[in-house]
Write a sequence for this structure.
């Protein structure tokens, strides 16, 4: 434990569903009396599913074990409902586990929800001193950090205003500044950074990186995979309350994308079996160039659209493929066809027809593919909408880069040049 900031051993957390208690003290005491004597609940309804024999429980976390080293920046990722927030609340000692143990070395500052730890009637100034006192800091130590906290937050003119009048963004800025600058041994950050503006997000991510460099421990939770990859060296992946991966962040993110169905349907049999005369489409797929179908496609990957087919036709007919790509909003982004490129899409025998889209062409989002096959450039002999979907994820970025999504479905990287004008 000497080099460990946090050790979690076989943590389990269960919650009871339905109404807990009767609503009044006298009824609760009467219920306890009947329970001790082994009698039925006098307040349960006839045929009620909430009787003592039918109390339902859900398991939010099950058999969770991991270590976080001192000075490590540690990521926790997973879909909504995977148990991330519950785990952070247990580590922060906001709630207790049903079973298991947790060992923590040092004090903790948590940013789990906007305004957590702030008193709404107190001013920003008063909340800074209150949070410092909670962390065990002396008043002079807090005072020495005060100007730095206010400058970082960027809300100096509102520091003597009750925080109940702050916007969510102002709340976040001050809360992060307090948590980061009052030098806790362990800083826990949930998805709250999603509220801040782009400039403040950059400042926060840079500060998080510096905190790790100072030997303090950071636990970072986000659905922004680019931010997680740029900050955390190691991560766990939660699914349905269980750890399904613990290791390098890049591998955790790749598994998250795969399990989250962001990389599914890259290769698929056609739902409508296509055979026309002696022409048969066997399969169609989308993948990153030189990668497997199950691997994620990132923005810096060349993308390959593949059709596997068998053509035993000897007659003089021409066939062409047309792809139509739609974005998340259902609007078509572009259309591409072999009509503009080659005489006929299908050569004799068994082949794979490939179309390549260059790197840095798509934005980060999910796209849907419609396919048409035409005979002699005019007769549609096959058409299927949304035959495949694929998701383009962010490439790994440098710290301080913008981690968000720019508007639009396309985000091409064009060539830009400066040319000096001779006078």
């Amino acid at each position: 434990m000497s080099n460990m900031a946090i050790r979690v051993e076989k943590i389990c957390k269960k919650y009871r569903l339905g109404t807990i208690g009767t609503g009044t003290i006298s009824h609760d005491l009467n219920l306890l009396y009947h329970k001790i004597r082994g009698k039925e609940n006098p307040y349960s309804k006839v045929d009620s599913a909430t009787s003592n024999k039918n109390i339902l429980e859900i398991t939010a976390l099950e058999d969770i074990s991991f270590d976080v080293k001192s000075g490590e920046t540690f990521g926790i990722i997973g879909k909504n409902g995977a148990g991330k927030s519950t785990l952070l609340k247990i580590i922060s000692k906001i709630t207790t586990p049903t079973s298991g143990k947790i060992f923590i070395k040092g004090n903790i500052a948590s940013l789990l929800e906007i305004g957590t730890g702030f008193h709404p009637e107190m001013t920003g100034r008063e909340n800074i001193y209150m949070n410092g006192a909670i962390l065990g800091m002396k008043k002079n130590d807090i005072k020495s950090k005060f100007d730095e906290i206010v400058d970082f937050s960027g809300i100096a003119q509102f520091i003597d205003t009750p925080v109940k009048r702050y916007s969510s963004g102002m709340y976040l800025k001050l809360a992060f500044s307090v948590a980061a600058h009052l030098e806790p041994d362990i800083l826990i950050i949930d998805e709250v950074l999603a509220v801040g503006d782009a400039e403040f997000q950059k400042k926060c991510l840079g500060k998080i990186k510096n905190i790790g460099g100072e030997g303090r421990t950071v636990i970072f939770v986000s659905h922004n995979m680019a931010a997680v990859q740029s900050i955390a060296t190691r991560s766990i992946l939660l699914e349905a309350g269980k750890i399904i991966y613990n290791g390098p962040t890049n591998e955790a993110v790749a598994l998250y994308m795969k399990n989250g169905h962001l990389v599914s349907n890259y290769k698929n049999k056609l739902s409508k079996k296509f055979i026309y005369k002696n022409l048969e489409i066997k399969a169609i797929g989308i993948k990153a160039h030189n990668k497997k179908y199950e691997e994620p496609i990132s923005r810096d990957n060349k993308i390959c659209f593949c059709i596997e087919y068998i053509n035993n036709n000897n007659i003089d007919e021409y066939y062409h493929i047309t792809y139509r790509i739609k974005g998340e909003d259902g609007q078509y982004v572009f259309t591409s066809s072999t009509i503009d490129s080659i005489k006929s899409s299908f050569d004799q025998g068994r082949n794979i027809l490939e179309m390549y889209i260059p790197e840095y062409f798509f934005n980060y989002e999910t796209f849907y593919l419609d396919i048409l096959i035409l005979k002699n450039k005019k007769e549609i002999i096959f058409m299927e909408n949304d035959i495949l979907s694929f998701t383009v994820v962010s490439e790994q970025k440098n710290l301080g880069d913008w981690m968000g999504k720019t508007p639009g479905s396309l985000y091409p990287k064009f060539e830009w040049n400066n040319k000096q004008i001779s006078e």
The first helix runs from residue 25 to 36. Residues 46-52 have pLDDT under 50 and may be disordered. The CA atoms of residues 191 and 222 lie 5 Å apart. The chain has three domains: 4-13+62-259, 18-55, 267-393.
